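Need C-alpha cells for this chain, all 494 residues.
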Amino acid sequence: MKLNILFVASEAAPYAQVGGLGEVMRSLPTALRKLDHDVRIFIPRYGGIDSKQFPLELEASNLKIISPERDPNGLLVCNVLKHKDEKGNIIAYFLENMEYYEKRANVYGYSDDTTRWLLLSRGVLEFLKQSPWKPDIIVSNDWQTGFVPNLLATEYASDPDLSKIATVHSIHNLKHQGIFDQHFISEIDYDSGQGPLPQFFDKEIWKINGARRGILSADVVNAVSPTYAKEIMTKEFGEMLDEVLRERQSRVFGILNGINTTVLDPERDEVLAKPFSSGKLRNRSANKAALQKRFGLHDDPDAFVVAFVGRLDNQKGIDLLQNIAGAMLQNLNSQLIVLGDGDNDDKLYFQNLQRQYPGSVVAELRFDANLPRQIFAGADAVLVPSAFEPCGLVQMEAMRYGAIPIVRKVGGLADSVADYVPGTSVGTGFVFEKYDHLALLIAVVRAYETYKNKKAWAALVKHAMEQDFSWGKSAQEYITLFKTAVQLHTARHA
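Here are the C-alpha cells for all 494 residues:
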C-alpha cells in the first residue's frame, strides 16, 4: 500500500536547520521515499533558504488564511512554493509570508512565534483544500505544528477531503510546549487544549500549548525512542503532560531515530585525515594524531581522548562534566575536547579549564558542520551524560566513527547503547544510571581501564562501528505506525 505522507515542521535540512529536528526531517522522508511512498515536507519559506541552490517554483498564490469565525481582521495572505528533486518529483513545500518568515533572521526566538507556527499550520490545511495532491497522513512535529491535528479534529472536521487525513504527532522534545515555560505558568493562563484556537492577533495567543493540543488531537502520538515514549508518561520526564499521555497511552508509540549512514561514512568521508572502517581500524590512528595536532593537544597516541559534542546545557549533563573534569585530567592520562555553544558561564568555565590544562584541554565554543565527524573519528570516547535525552544522535554518530559512548541510561541513549561487559562481546559503550557526577566518573574510569587493554578496546570499537543505526529499519516501523493511524482514523470516522 503506497502512502502519501506530509511532514509539517518548523525546520528541515538541507533548507533550514537549527537542531536535530532538521536532520530528521531530511533523513526520515528520504528513507520513506526509498520504500516507494510519496513523501513531502512543508516548512516556512525562510529568507535564509538559498534559492540558487534550491530553485523554488510557485505552487499556489494569494492563499487567504483566516482566523476562526472567518474574521476578516484576522486575514493573512501567503504563497506556497515547491521544490522538486532531480527526477521532477515534488519533495517540499514552503509557506511564503514576508512579515513572519522572510524578514526574520532566525528560525526561532520571537515574541510572536506562536502566531508564526499557527499561520504555518493553517496555511498547510488551506493549501491542501485546493491542492490536487492529498496526503493520507500528516505528521506534525513538536509543539510548533501540534496545531495541525488540533485544527483537523475541530475546525476542519467536516471538510469532505481533509477529514479523511490521519494524523501522527511526533514528540522530539517534550520540554518545549510553547513560547512560555510550563513550569511557571499560572492556572489562569493554563491551556487545557480543549478550547478553540485564538485569532492570529489575539493578545492571548502566547498561552496556547501546541504540544498538549497535538497529543490530545492526533490519531497516534510518537516519541523518538521507545524508552522516551515510556518516560514521558512519568512525572519525572512528562513535563506536566504525563497525565494526558497516560490517558492516551494506547495511542503512544516510540521509534528510535536513525542517522544518515550515507553522509556519515568513515570509509568515504573527505573531511577525515584518513578513511577507515571496522575492518581497517589501524587507519583510525591517523585521525587521532590529526585531531591532536589540529587542536594543539599533546602528541600522545596513548592518551585517552574524551570528547563532548553538543549544547553546553544541563540537559546534556554539562554540570556533571564540570564536576569530574579536574579529577579525570589529574588522575588519568587523558585529554578533553569540548565542542558546542551555550551559556556564557559554561563557556567561561571551559575556557579557564583550557588555560589550566594547556595541551590537555581544548574548548571550541562554536558550531562547525565538519568538526563533529573529525572529533568522532579521532577521539577514543564521547560523553553523553544527559539528564534526559529523547533520542540523541551524538552517540550513534560517534559509534559510526569508532568513538565509544559513555552515556546515562535514559531515553534514546538507553535504546542505542548497551553497557560493556568485560571479557565478552556484549556492549557498545559504558552506561551509568543515576544522574550523579560520581556515577559518571566511575563510568569514565571503567572506559579508561578497558582502553588500556588494546585488544579488548579494539574489539569494542569494531563492535560499536558495526551497529546498524541507518534509517531503513526505523522507516519500516514508521510505515507500520502510519498504517495503524490510518486504521484508527478510519474506524473513528466510519
